[in-house]
Amino acid sequence: MNPVRRWRDSSKPQRSELYLRWSLYLMALAPLPVALLINSSDQEVGREPASRVALVIGLALTLVTLRAYRTSLDHYLNRPTDHLRWLAVNGGIAVAGSWVLLLLGPRVGSAPGTEEVVFTHPITSTMLFSAFGPASVGLPPRRAALAGAAALLAVAPAMLLAGAAPGTTTGLLVGTGVAMIFIGCSCRSFAWLQSVVWELDAAREAQARLAVAEERLRFSRDLHDVMGRNLTTIALKSELAVQLARRGRPEAAEQMAEVQQIAQESQREVRDVIRGYRTAALHAEAVGARAVLRSADVACEINLGEDADELPASVQSVLGWVIREATTNVLRHSEAGRCSIRLHREAGRAVLELENDGVPAVPLPSQGGGTGLRGLRERLAAHDGELTVPDAGPGVFRLLASVPL
């Protein structure tokens, strides 16, 4: 897939992960340029074989470190992965490669015991702290610190055997340890930041689901309040009518007549509840949309005009439903930063315009046969209205709902 198209088609959390993931991958390339620089330099004589070995080891470690970063980050984000195996391979290559380079590297010195490795020190240090990056992401901090310390201690004998002085060895190991701490904190912070992004995205999804659940709970509560008492009365009077009928009493017919009356009254009350639930007041829906969108960090601009209250009640109701459904679409199908709702009159019709940004470059569910806008079209059609979704440019979604006055 085209990288530009892939970036446009990704959501904000996916873009964030792509950016942070590749930031980690760039850290894995650290040993390669150092090895290339050493291999191309000819300041010291007699080190060509070792420099070629450094190039091969640096390339191998880079490839394995890339894989280790990928699996470690997946593990940190609670995805199935085999990160421990790759971390072990990565650490093994770093330590073994350091031994090979230290023992093969050239030495200079004026007296026995003063020889020091010339060019293998920088590549060895780079390999160690580069390999520590994936461990800091895939392991708990304490275990990662122990693994880093073990790698430094494992390389120390090779430095001494290569002729480095104890003071030089200690200084190099301390410097490498400081670099490992810096790299480890940076990589761990990247992984933590990405996990926070995904948690916030999940919280946003949960907020939308809770809003739907709260509305369903409100409707069920209203329906229970209306029907609970009436159904209880119907049950008691029906039982009483049965007992009276068994005894041949004429009052049974009166009780059943009351049951019929209560049932008809219940039917009327249920219709009132449903009618109230299905009625969307224009101003109330606009205020609710602003509150919901602002809670999701979406800047919302609403302009209904001064004569919105003069519109017929049926027009206000159907336009209120348009605002409600459009607000749901903004939260579910976009990464909007702003949203505007405008109402105006045009050629004897009330036109409601909604526009938001943050639309990914993929077909919107509403444009692919979604039930939300289809239901709005049916509601508008009952009032001789129409719903259109004109092209508003890349990343922008515009909806126009018009109803004759």
Automatic annotation (TrEMBL):
InterPro entries in UniProt: HATPase_C_sf, HATPase_dom, Sensor_HK_TwoCompSys, Sig_transdc_His_kin_sub3_dim/P
- Provide this UniProt record's keywords sorted from A to Z: Kinase, Membrane, Transferase, Transmembrane, Transmembrane helix, Two-component regulatory system
**Which ranges carry the Histidine kinase/HSP90-like ATPase domain?**
319-390
What are the protein's GO molecular function terms? Answer: kinase activity
Please list the residue ranges annotated as the Signal transduction histidine kinase subgroup 3 dimerisation and phosphoacceptor domain. 215-281
TM region positions: 20-38, 50-66, 87-105, 117-137, 144-165, 171-191
* SUPFAM superfamilies linked: ATPase domain of HSP90 chaperone/DNA topoisomerase II/histidine kinase
Q: Can you name this protein?
A: Sensor histidine kinase
Lineage summary: Bacteria, Bacillati, Actinomycetota, Actinomycetes, Kitasatosporales
